[in-house]
Structures are given as C-alpha cells and as structure tokens.
Specification:
Number of strands: 5
Largest sheet: 5 strands, parallel
Structural class: alpha/beta
Radius of gyration: 15 Å
Shape: globular
Number of helices: 6
CATH superfamily: Rhodanese-like domain
CATH architecture: 3-Layer(aba) Sandwich
Strand order of the largest sheet: 1-5-4-2-3
Length: about 130
C-alpha cells in the first residue's frame, strides 16, 4: 500500500486550525437571521435520506469553488451577496476542508464544527421534503 505524506485526518486538523468554527448550538440560534446563508455541502442523496436545514442552500462540495468565484461560468448569485456564510457537511470534515479552501480564495466563510449530526442532536430544525436549491 502506498504511504501518503499527509492523512485526511491531518488535512482536516490543519484546516480546522485555520478557520472559524461554530458549534451547532450557536448555528441553530442564527438560523432565522436574514443575514445568514447556511450552505449544505453534502451529497444530494444525504439530503434526501437524512433531511436538511430548512432554507439552506445546497452547494455540492465538488462545485463550491466555482460557484463562489464571480469569474467562473458557474458562479451563483447567492454567493455574491454581502451575507455571512456558514457551511456544513455531515460531521464537519468536508466543510472544514472546504472553508479552508474558500478562505484561501478570499471568500469569507465559516463552518458548523460538528456538522449536520450536531445540528440534529442539538434539536435544530430539519426539513424532510426536498426543496429547490
């Protein structure tokens, strides 16, 4: 087996040391703030299976760098707004890596440190019918 120079766990730990992390309990308290955009990076199958944060924007992790870049043909207007962007995945690993990358690009974002699982376990609202994103 090929030995990696850095593990995925090390990448996540490095990212988490460089970004702003919010506990899910704090993110829940911000949920209804009009200046907050909660961005769900999970796969569409996860959203359908497990539900999602009401009014969250679904932005697949594989496209997010292109969606936030105004010079990209894939740019999404939602990311051009002057709002606070809070990203999440299931447990906070993918979102930590993504926020570190977006921060490197100059895009201001933070993430829910314990992800959707933390959101659910702390009583955050969950929608179960799919919505347009």
């Amino acid at each position: 087996m090929k030995k990696l120079t850095i593990s995925s766990a090390q990448l996540v730990a490095r990212a988490k040391s460089q970004i702003k992390e919010l506990p899910s309990s704090e993110a829940i308290s911000l949920h209804n703030d009009d200046n907050i955009v909660i961005v769900d990076l999970r796969d569409i199958r996860e959203r359908k299976r497990d539900g999602f944060i009401p009014n969250s924007v679904h932005a697949p992790r594989g496209m997010i760098e292109f969606w936030v870049d105004p010079d990209s043909p894939y740019f999404k207007e939602i990311f051009g707004q002057s709002k606070r962007f809070i990203l999440h995945c299931a447990s906070g690993w993918r979102s930590a890596l993504t926020v570190a990358t977006l921060q490197e690009m100059g895009f201001d974002a933070e993430h829910i440190e314990d992800g959707f699982k933390g959101w659910v376990s702390n009583g955050g609202p969950v929608a179960t019918a799919d919505e347009p994103s």
